[in-house]
Design brief:
about 325 residues; alpha+beta; Arc Repressor Mutant, subunit A; BirA Bifunctional Protein, domain 2; SH3 type barrels; 3 domains; seven-stranded mixed β-sheet; about 25% strand; elongated
């Protein structure tokens, strides 16, 4: 029955208009009775379906669903398996806990709501329930071929490219982990590395798709993608786009020694920080100076006002 329900779900997702029972039965290759049972199964697992004399359709935007995310995704590593929760403490915590399980590499954990979503440097990631992308990707890296800095840069590029394909905007990148539209933050990325029991790289991605957090919850201006669209956006389409691009970058980071230069060039093309005067807090210290370069492996290279040239790592640094 789950196979029939999943098949019907992909059929309904592919169309935005009402479908009659006969149309659904033909399109899904099911009997009318099998369609009814499959619809009951979908509704029991939380899929919201509008039923009218004109037929049935999925209520848009569609809630997160693991099958719709995995279906014909076509990735090599990232997103081979996905799990969706209504509510968790943190998707990254779930991903890290899953590192002990067989076949966990590439797992994508999503939630409609986080009770304790994490941002960088101990900050909290705020998001209203059911509106945005709260996602963590688990990459098991026993040979230690994935640099956390390079993965952070790659994730930012993947989100920026997906955003531009979803809405008519220019997505910019702010070191080390923000995606911006018109200087307002729409995405934050937090890459965490754990070494026990296995080296696990977890890529946490939060994207404001259909709602922005309230101003009091933010240190900087925030916006959502729906502000630049004709209405609410399908999060599933955006998630699948991000996963495909991230998967391509992860494969290159693992297998291609020249990828660092490509990451560097493509990231800088979206960053307006070069040669700008900035103040950066790194650990317990604060530095002000001119940005000379941003290196995917070594972090931000700053010429300070006192003449020093510093390399500030992304893991412990933040632009004020």
């Amino acid at each position: 029955m789950n196979l029939a329900a999943n098949h019907l779900l992909t059929t309904l997702y592919a169309r935005h208009t009402y479908a009659s029972w006969d149309e659904l039965a033909t399109a899904a290759g099911l009997s009318r009775e099998a369609v009814r049972r499959a619809l009951d199964t979908l509704q029991a697992r939380g899929v919201v379906i509008d039923d009218s004399p004109a037929g049935v359709r999925l209520r848009r935007p569609v809630g997160l669903d693991a099958h719709l995310i995995e279906h014909e995704l076509g990735t090599f590593r990232v997103g081979r398996n996905a799990i969706v929760f209504g509510e968790v403490e943190s998707t990254s915590d779930v991903a890290l806990d899953s590192a002990r399980q067989a076949g966990a590499d590439g797992l994508v954990v999503l939630a409609e709501r986080q009770r304790a979503g994490r941002g960088r440097l101990g900050r909290r990631w705020a998001s209203p329930a059911g509106a945005n992308v709260l996602m963590s990707v688990l990459l098991l890296d026993d040979p230690e071929r994935l640099s956390g800095e390079a993965v952070t840069i790659a994730a930012g590029l993947a989100v920026a490219e997906a955003v531009e394909r979803a809405v008519p905007v220019s997505a910019r990148l702010k070191w080390p982990n923000d995606v911006l539209i018109d200087d307002a933050k729409v995405c934050g990325i937090l890459v965490e590395v754990r070494r026990r029991p296995r080296r696990a790289v977890v890529v946490g991605i939060g994207i404001n798709v259909n709602a922005a957090p309230p101003p009091e919850a933010c240190r900087c201006p925030a916006a959502c993608l729906a502000d630049h669209a004709q209405g609410p956006l399908e999060r599933i389409d955006l998630i699948r786009d991000v996963l495909r691009t991230l998967d391509a970058w992860v494969g290159q980071i693992t297998d291609d020694g020249d990828v660092t230069r490509r990451l560097h060039d493509q990231w800088l093309a979206r960053c307006g920080m070069m040669n700008q005067r900035v103040t950066v807090r790194s650990g317990s210290e604060q530095f002000t100076g001119r940005v000379l370069d941003i290196d995917p492996l070594e972090g931000l290279i700053l010429q300070t006002d006192t003449g020093q040239q510093l390399r500030l790592p992304a893991a412990t640094s933040s632009v004020e």
